Amino acid sequence: MTHPTNPTRRRLLVTTGGALTWAGLTSLSHADMGEKEEAAKAAAAAKETDKAFPDYVAWKDADSMILHSSNTIETKRTAFGQSGITPVNRLYVRNNVNPPSNDIVEDPDAWEVEIAGVDSPKTLTVAELKQLGTTSVAMVLQCAGNGRGWFPHEPSGTQWETGAAGCVVFTGVPVKKVLEALGGMDSDAKYMTGTGGEEIPEGIDPDTVRVERSVPLEAVEDALLAWEINGEPLPLAHGGPLRMIVPGYIGINNIKYVKKLAFTEEQSSANIQQNSYRWTEVGVKGSPEYDSIWESPPKSWITSPVDPDEELKAGKVQIVGVAMGGMSNAKKIEVSTNGGKDWKEAEFVGLDLGKYAWRQFAFEADLDAGTHELACRVTNEDGDTQPEERRENNRGYLNNSWRDHAVEITVA
Amino acid sequence: MTHPTNPTRRRLLVTTGGALTWAGLTSLSHADMGEKEEAAKAAAAAKETDKAFPDYVAWKDADSMILHSSNTIETKRTAFGQSGITPVNRLYVRNNVNPPSNDIVEDPDAWEVEIAGVDSPKTLTVAELKQLGTTSVAMVLQCAGNGRGWFPHEPSGTQWETGAAGCVVFTGVPVKKVLEALGGMDSDAKYMTGTGGEEIPEGIDPDTVRVERSVPLEAVEDALLAWEINGEPLPLAHGGPLRMIVPGYIGINNIKYVKKLAFTEEQSSANIQQNSYRWTEVGVKGSPEYDSIWESPPKSWITSPVDPDEELKAGKVQIVGVAMGGMSNAKKIEVSTNGGKDWKEAEFVGLDLGKYAWRQFAFEADLDAGTHELACRVTNEDGDTQPEERRENNRGYLNNSWRDHAVEITVA
What percent of chain A has pLDDT over 70? Predict the structure, then answer.
């Protein structure tokens, strides 16, 4: 288990019985805490509770979330529930730039999206899209930086731990149905490129701020233009009225308030495509020569018990968590109660929502009084196993190290 | 399509663009409406918007619901979404008696349930139950009286049409795991009997008001004691902190705020078991000699388009809806656009959440200008097809007539 090197990076993560506790995933026990840290804790707690959720996310369940900033809000590790589906009012929020006005979701059917790079280019309203077909997909939506909080070189960006992720159901029209209706894509197309509806301030090069991402064409197979999440109209905070959904692809590729969907020969010229979200070594800036952050890797974490202050009795303890395969089904999930020395297979329980979703797992451990380091690791159907160590990279992307996600608990 | 015989029974069902419209499922067009009916409409609209949701359901999405009374609140036919899962804030509410104080959900882990009729009877807290195991099930929760609004003899009770139903995910401990922990059930047990935590007023025979239901032992196989719905702690309105969940069984059998779970030789002596929720002919009161309302039958209905005032263009129209198999998977779904004269197979789309859930379906119709009567009927894996006609019964239970659920739409 990695302890963040800088105490200011430790964060309030767990709420127990209404009282904020200093848990983090750093297993910092009260005994370890010096006076300075106690003061820092109090200051952080005060800051946390003072912050108000901005209007566009005022409906979020504040008790289940960690407000980093108005555009970065994390789900607490204890707040995912055990149903396989993350409630929308607990789902993380992450915007690269400020969202557009809430006006755009007032009449969602009127929203327009331009479809380009097809035989018969056309601008379609959501109402028109709804007449082309409908389906749903359950998927893990996860920010590229989820788990960034454990990188020792302290990459810039939000210090997410586990909560910049959730498993939700998106409903909309398959992109394939849109292509069918418009005569198919251009023969030279290599990418599907979505453009977000954020307002671009005047006088600056749009490429510096435009949220526009390109994904390879194989992503079209399961992609949607979605107007609904978990049965509700897609709220602004999650990209309503219409979002480009690319199941299995990391959050940034799922373009919010999508106003243009194009089938293109080249990747977008936007900075967010060319230079951001690239795999580079620590200290190296992103550029087109490096791989883009697209597909999700296998990953899992324990969601209960995770609070070092939780009162657990020696004996049988249910260890539960979530496990995702990435681009193929989660096939095996193992749990260790001694920091990865020994592993036992745990059981997937509840719903199987398909390869892009996560699955709940449960493991009945028999724990003696004392401290235990709990870890889990998933293997997907392609045979890829979640690694022990994170892959170091400049911006702290795609941390799926099982060691970083381990937790220390104490039973009495 | 049956038209309710009494105009006062027609209700406001559809909200379009924020304006209340007089839709019902009665396909009453504006042209049909006399002045008297227009006045009734205005009065009903005023009454509807004046009513306030009681505190325990203040968090419901009022725009998606029809408030019949403080204990009977229906989901609008247009508000189920197309994701397969019904958002909790749109899920119907039905209580036989007033719910207990909201205090009971403030510390859900402390709630106690007495387990009786087992080898080692014991009272367990929710916290203790959580250590015995966890799983989830997606299921249609449906009131016995859903569809009562179409019975011509006007049975007493809420005049539900389609909205006393929803498909949700319950999470909790399998009853089988509880039995395992307590040494198994008594050998003479024939029923699983749950007792609700409602307060019984002093001075009256508890059997007259107690909410206590018995289900046959085969129901134990998939039954849960659930503390979570769609990933959120179970709210009071839906039976929190703990509910007995019997997948596939009609709503009343899923005991809210369950305070006792017993394995019994006899069915409960409560009136709600002995005399209510029994299959009897019109005019005949319920009593133990008649079959109890337990298992759900196959049923489906269209959710879009259903509004006679919706502006639809001739040509391709997506017809979408929900279809449930009852006690086995929905296997086939057919759609008719001419009131049941001809049927074509529609496609199941989106998530398959298991045999107790409903599935979304979609059908691309090619409609000429004019009026069309849309109907659907489901067949389950056991080979049972949703019937054309309702089974007449005194209290208006289990209406799964496809003809009653048909809708009339107009395309221009």
Answer: 88
* Same domain (yes/no): A34, A137: no
Extract the tokens encoding B236: 């009071």
The answer on B149 and B13 residing in a single domain is no
Domain-located, residue A81? no
Distance CA A370, CA B357 (A): 43
Same domain, A311 and A247: no
Among B255-269, B308-322, B340-354, the range scoring the smallest mean pLDDT is B308-322
CB contacts < 8 A (A, B): 131
CB within 8 Å of A405: residues ≥ 6 apart? A25, A147, A162, A300, A301, A302, A375, A376
Q: Which residues of A touch B321 (CB under 8 A)?
A: none
Residue B305 and residue B396 share a domain: yes
**In sequence order, what E strands does B100-202 have?**
112-116, 122-125, 135-142, 165-174, 191-196
Contacts of B105 in chain A (CB under 8 A): none
Q: Which residues pair with B165 in a beta bridge?
A: B142
Note whether residue B237 is domain-resident. yes
| pLDDT given for residue B21 in this prediction | 32
Q: Does A71 fall in a domain?
A: no
**Cα separation, B229 vs B239, whole angstroms:** 10
B contact set with A (CB within 8 A): 17, 80-88, 90, 107, 130-138, 169-171, 228-232, 316-318, 320, 349-351, 353-354, 360, 362, 364
List of chain A residues whose C-beta atoms are within 8 Å of the C-beta of residue B350: 134-137, 169, 171
| Residue A289 clears pLDDT 50, i.e. is over it | yes
Task: Name the residue range of residue B373's domain.
Answer: 299-411
Q: Per the domain annotation, does B223 fall within a domain? A: yes
Q: Which residue of A has its CA nearest to B168?
A: A83
List the single residue in A with minimal CA-CA distance to B82: A231
Flag if A135 and B349 touch (Cβ within 8 Å): yes
B349 in Cβ contact with B304 (< 8 Å) = no
Which of A81, A169, A349 is the closest to B228 by Cβ? A81
Instruction: Choose the closest CB to B136 out of A107, A135, A360.
Output: A360
Residue B185 CA: distances (Å) to CA of A146, B114, B221, B222: 46, 14, 13, 16
Residue A360 near residue A249 (C-beta atoms within 8 A): no
pTM for the whole structure: 0.89
CATH number at residue B120: 3.90.420.10
Q: Do A231 and B81 touch (CB under 8 A)?
A: yes
Judge: B87–A318 Cβ closer than 8 Å, yes or no: no
Query: What distance in Å separates the CA atoms of residue A361 and residue B78, rounded to the nearest whole number?
Result: 35
Write the pLDDT tens digit of every residue in A347-385: 999 999 999 999 999 999 999 999 999 999 999 999 999
Please check whether residue A381 is in contact with residue A331, taking contact to mean a CB–CB distance below 8 angstroms.
yes
Q: Mutation test of the interface with chain B: which of A59, A61, A76, A83, choosing the one with the most B Cβ atoms within 10 A?
A: A83
Strands A258-264 and A112-116: parallel
Cβ-nearest to A169 among B83, B130, B135: B83
Residue type, A73: I
Domain count, chain A: 3
CATH code (residue B336): 2.60.40.650
Check CB contact under 8 Å for B132 and A169: no
Q: From B138, which residue of chain A is nearest by alpha-carbon distance? A: A351
Please say if the pLDDT value at position B248 is more than 70.
Answer: yes
Measured in whole angstroms, the distance separating CA B67 from the mean position of its chain's CA atoms is 15
What's residue A310's pLDDT? 85
